[in-house]
Batch of 3 targets.
Target 1
Amino acid sequence: MRYQISGKQIDIGEALQTHVRTEIDSVIAKYPGRPTDALVIFSKSAHEYCCESVVHLSTGLTVQAKGVATEIYSAFDQANEKMEKQLRRYKRRLKDHHKDRSQPVELSSAASYILASSTADEDTEPDSLNPMIIAEIETSIPSLSVGEAVMQMELAGAPLLVFRNDRQDTGVNIVYRRDDGNIGWIDPNATT
């Protein structure tokens, strides 16, 4: 497995890198999915350290976790515990997902844009209805079943996931976490 361990504006020592590799290996070894690479980024904000971990599995799924603590090792341990909890929760589904899928998840390219927020007062009307694009990023849209999409959204800790429904070939679908705690699914081609 490839590791990329780095720090934003802070130095990461060899002892911390060894600790990260050892702990991630021990967590991932318990669960199916053969990891391909791991990205761990440390940063510091005031007196707290933040650790963001992302592990890509060979099946195309991604596990993400974030930890915040006053010590750098504690921040990583917190993120690692969250990652282990996510993997433990989805262990059976990851096994089933691996059996059903003979090929890795197919990814389609798409453009993602970041738009400038409106700084005008709420009482005034905007000058233009065309928002200003401040960043353009290439992103990937996975081809998943609805169950796999919900699992991926939960593993990533994301509020929503855009995906192609590989079971029905209905184009782009969205699963999202509703305010009531349930999961919503938007299928644009479904008829009522």
Note: The domain at 2-98 is CATH 3.30.160.100 (Double Stranded RNA Binding Domain).
Target 2
Amino acid sequence: MSGIAIVGGGPTGLNAAIYTARADRRTLVFALLGTFLFLDGFDFGAGAIFATLSDDEGREAVLSAIGPFWDGNEVWLVVFGGALFAAFPSVYAGLFSRHYLLMFGILGALILRGLAPEMYEQRHDARWHRWWGRSFVAGSVLAPFLLGAFAGNWLVGSPRSLTLVGVVTGVAVTALTVVSGAAFLRLKVREALPETVTEIGVAAVAAYLLAVVATLGVLATRLPAGVDALLSPPVIALVAASVGLGAGYAVALRRGASLVALAAAGGLTYGLIAVVGVLMYPRIDPATGATVGEAVVSTLPLNLMSIGSALLLPLVVAYFAVLYSAFSGPITAEEAY
């Protein structure tokens, strides 16, 4: 690790501070990815649940619930990409060149998910609604699935777009978005949606936990450390916490504590990202074997990134605080997308 003196097994003094700062950038990048997956995740989940609704009132309620938020939530994907490029440009270049098909797929799904609700409201005949409703569902399901596939391939360093670990991770991420979506819709929409939305959320959290187990099983055969990596105390603790959060989510959702259920879904989301980060550490690009210290930019641009983050992130957070405050509470019957 260039520029870091190792004494007694670890960096000391000024070099220790530099090492910590570099590790913090990695944590920030993963935290931004988790924020996008949670905030836009409940939009994706709402889109998947949209497919289970047959009445116009329920479908309009879903669109009204996510209408003020979905485009703003996608900002976090841009922030994640910008932070990855600023802190680890070689990783950004390598990941996006190896998985450009997945990147185009994700962008295409996001475009479809954003375009479909707008088109859905332009006309009011059954055939038009059926076409754009299906497009909305397709974009809402494909985006998290492909994002999960991207994360799984990143974790194991696979250069291919279609892999077993990518598929099982994609299924896990898609199920997780339905978990968030059910809690969000129960929080924002009450009378207009059937009780089956609650059961969908409970089934989704069970499916998510099963998908996580399947993913860990596949990773045991793909990670260099094998089963030993999965039996490390941090991974065991995170998996146990996920099981507890999943159970708490199901209980809260069935009791009508939608905000608690949504918070539990957020914990599951950040827990999943934490598992990926722990399994990958100290590498940031397993495909090349590059570690955080090897891939991070030099000290000067790193410091400039810190200054930029300190100035811009509070503004982004303030914007979202105002947005969610302005549109807090359940939607009314008069609101439309």
Note: Residues 13-326 form a domain with the Formate dehydrogenase/DMSO reductase fold fold (CATH 1.20.1630).
Target 3
Amino acid sequence: MKLSLAALAVSALIVAAPSAHARTASKNPATVKAGTYRIDPYHTQVVFTLSHFGFTEFTGMFGNASGSLVLHPAKPASDKLSVTIPVGSVLTTVPALTTELTNAQWFDAAKYPNATFTSTKVIRTGKTTATIDGSFTLHGVTRPIVLKARFIGAGINPIDKSYTVGFSATGVIKRSEFGVKAYVPMVGDDVTLTLAGAFERQK
């Protein structure tokens, strides 16, 4: 019996795909390994959300983030997080707006190419949650920010075989305090930042 090309392709995908068990990260924070981690830039996003004239909560994102995470599950006060975000990577659903946001009246990516976050204190607030105090730098201005973090999962990535841990973290800034004042208050001053972070263990 001859198989069609489509059937052969589907069969190959089924054989090559990792098992469902292998794809499932552990949700148990007790399984997380201590160590130094590096951001996986391909699976890490920084999303921003703000009010657009009071009609919608408009969202965009940044990619190509880099940075590190030092984890001590038994001593979370010793944890450290640093993130660098190239603001020129900004992406929205409106191409003209995406280009505009890199200009001087907004992020001024040519003069201030990166936004950064550096933690100063980590406090565990629950089995899978923590607050992360730190310094956030944007548009050449540094101000304190508090992130609310949540553990997502940990385990071996079935594709590249790296031990990976995932967290989400959310905080709010006032963009005018960083000198990004265009169209305030019609376009919201309060901006919610959400990090969807994947970190690969280095040692």
Note: The domain at 24-201 is CATH 2.40.128.110 (Lipocalin).
